[in-house]
Design brief:
Chain lengths: ~290, ~325
């Protein structure tokens, strides 16, 4: 079946898959950072991505500048995230570990309705930024400029995230707190504040994923569920709490979804879950999961 | 330290053991229910209570959180509906088909994922639930009728040539099943198997060290829970006369989570109370605004923050602490 398809179509689909996967990668790395620091699986991750998408819509309609949109999406949603962590999650630490998870689930149910009240049920489209509209011919391939931008931009985000975590003082503290937060506290560092920063950073990444996805799929109140689901599948495939896993898992799932859309369109929504089931069968802890963290 | 251990021992002593009367008392209340509130609402309460009993067995008593329980509910609903629609089986066979299908699905998901730590299982179950939703939506559209849901399932609902078409007749049919499931749940919790579940929830490592196969017991708990879910789904098909696609939607999974936590996970009557309060809230709020999810979600967040034990859990705690004070006073008098 797949051999009948010309090579350039396959390469095009690979390109689509990488662009889609880039969005998954950003979602999943935010999820991983939050899980690593707080031991909380953020069920509202997609809801925060959806908020990011709507902030972009507002900012672009007001300023007309896409870059302004992206920056304000990250900043505003990260602030909302910090507020959520301080007011709602903090009281639950040290109690039943299921409670923070249930709480973020409650947020995932409630937040889309706030947006429905404010913006209505119909999706809001955002035009491609002028600098990246159109397409470029590369050899036999016609590649959309915006998707190329997403891939390059994601790469830049990941490199800066990596440098931040490896080289900066704050990044070092975050990594240390992920390993052993009690020890970090003993050294005289306010871990409570580190958790707030970590949560804000994680949902900020979710907002970024929502923001760059908007021109391709337009913002709808219910887009968050699918984004949460994508991030979960990627995390299970890649291994929870591992950035490398998030990257490889995200790109893999993106490519698989794109190819299924090509050969069997109606299965494209089912493919990633099927892929997750297969990975669970052959490697239960995920591709990059540590054996202790099953 | 010593005092703390004593206190804990006392607490287990005063903790009320659920007696069989709780089952019969509840049954009596439920018999009268359709005279107080509308028959459709009463029937819905029963169906969701069955679903909640099974969910509570898994979350409240075993400590496993599933976010994909819509899969069992929906698969039970679709299997029963398809069997009745295409094979023209009678309703009892239809229900049996739904239950068996859901139990098989629970076996499959359990075999793949039950060994994983709690958060992983929550994520994986949610993802499998969505997989079923999308499978019913598009690849199996020819059979499931996709977005429209499975309609025109049966002309009349008959049980041994007795018509259950009157809503009240159907209610008492569902009630009979609910009472059986209440009694079954009570028996399970009294059995050694039920005690093991609760021991695992309290301390899985210790139970493992005692030589119990915790994975196997959790697996059976999940399959049992799938049985309840499939049964509730099949009954929902009889009640509605069709299967909406939303019975597989993630919000259905979320609803049963919220109902159970609201009522009090790990308490015998928690699911029933949670279901009744949730459906009442949902119906009341829907009168004013279509955005009931906002209010229900917000109420759920507040419950988690202030009363994490839910309604029945908080009441039980109050009852226990009052009894403790009484016992302590008694002990002081004695000395």
């Amino acid at each position: 079946m797949i051999s009948d398809i010309p090579l350039n179509v396959i390469l095009m689909q690979l390109f689509f898959g990488l662009a889609l996967g880039s969005i998954f990668v950003i979602m999943a790395s935010g999820l991983s950072i939050i899980y690593g620091l707080l031991d909380v699986v953020n069920f509202a991750h997609g809801a925060f991505a959806m908020l990011g998408a709507y902030v972009v819509f507002c900012a672009v309609s007001l300023s007309g500048n896409f870059a302004v949109g992206i920056v304000s999406a990250i900043v505003i949603v990260a602030l909302i995230g910090a507020l959520v962590e301080v007011v709602l999650l903090k009281p639950l630490y040290g109690k039943d570990p299921l409670l923070p998870l249930l709480l973020t689930f409650g947020l995932a149910v409630a937040i889309p309705d706030v947006i429905k009240i404010a913006f209505g049920l119909i999706g809001k489209a955002v035009a491609y930024p002028a600098a990246f509209s159109g397409a470029t011919k590369v050899g036999p391939l016609i590649l959309s400029n915006y998707r190329m931008f997403i891939i390059v931009f994601t790469l830049a985000v990941l490199i800066s995230l990596w440098i931040f975590l490896k080289k900066s003082d704050l990044g070092m503290i975050i990594r240390a707190a992920t390993q052993d937060s009690l020890m970090v506290q003993v050294l005289g560092i306010n871990t409570s504040r580190i958790w707030t920063i970590g949560f804000a950073l994680g949902v900020g990444l979710a907002a970024l994923a929502g923001a760059i996805a908007v021109p391709m799929m337009s913002a709808t109140p219910d887009m968050g569920v699918e984004m949460t689901m994508g991030a979960f599948v990627v995390t299970v495939v890649g291994g929870l709490g591992s950035l490398g896993g998030a990257i490889v898992g995200g790109l893999l799932i993106g490519v698989i979804v794109a190819f299924t859309a090509l050969v069997a369109g109606e299965y494209s929504n089912v493919a990633m879950y099927f892929c997750m089931a297969v990975i669970l069968l052959i490697r239960p802890r995920g591709l990059f999961g540590e054996s202790g963290r099953e | 330290m010593k005092q703390a251990t004593d206190k804990k021992a006392m607490l287990t002593d005063v903790e009320p053991k659920p007696r069989a009367t709780i089952v019969w008392g509840t049954a009596l209340v439920l018999v009268a229910l359709p005279f107080v509130i509308s028959v459709p609402l009463s029937t819905e309460i029963l169906i969701w209570t069955i679903f909640g009993l099974g969910f509570n067995l898994l979350l409240g008593y075993t400590g496993v959180l599933s976010f994909g329980h819509a899969a069992y509910f929906g698969l039970g609903a679709y299997s029963a509906g398809l069997a009745i629609k295409y094979w023209q089986v009678d309703i009892l066979t239809g229900i049996a088909v739904g239950v068996v299908a859901s139990m098989l699905l629970a076996c499959f998901i359990g075999a793949l994922a039950i060994r994983r730590r709690g958060v992983y299982f929550a994520m994986i179950s949610l993802a499998f639930g969505q997989m079923l939703y999308f499978t019913a939506l598009s690849p199996l559209k020819e059979i499931t009728r996709g977005e429209d849901g499975l309609t025109h399932i049966m002309a009349t609902v008959n049980l041994f040539s007795v018509s259950l078409d009157k809503p009240k007749h159907l209610y008492y049919f569902v009630l009979a099943i609910t009472v059986v499931m209440l009694y079954l749940t009570w028996r399970i919790l009294q059995s050694p198997f039920g005690k093991m579940l609760q021991a695992f929830r309290e301390n899985e490592e210790r139970a493992k060290a005692c030589g119990y196969n915790t994975t196997l017991v959790k697996f059976f708990s999940l399959v049992l829970s799938g049985l309840y879910g499939g049964l509730a789904g099949a009954l929902n098909t009889l009640y509605l006369g069709y299967v909406p696609l939303t019975s597989l939607f993630w919000l259905t999974s979320g609803t049963i989570v919220m109902m159970t936590v609201l009522g009090g996970r790990g308490t015998f009557l928690g699911p029933l109370v949670g279901v009744a309060v949730f459906l009442f809230l949902q119906n009341t709020i829907s009168l004013f605004t279509p955005r009931w999810e906002l209010f229900v979600g917000a109420i759920f967040v507040v419950i988690i923050l202030i009363f994490p034990g839910g309604i029945m859990g908080t009441l039980r705690e109050k009852y226990l602490s009052r009894k403790m004070v009484k016992l302590q006073n008694k002990a002081a008098d004695f000395q």
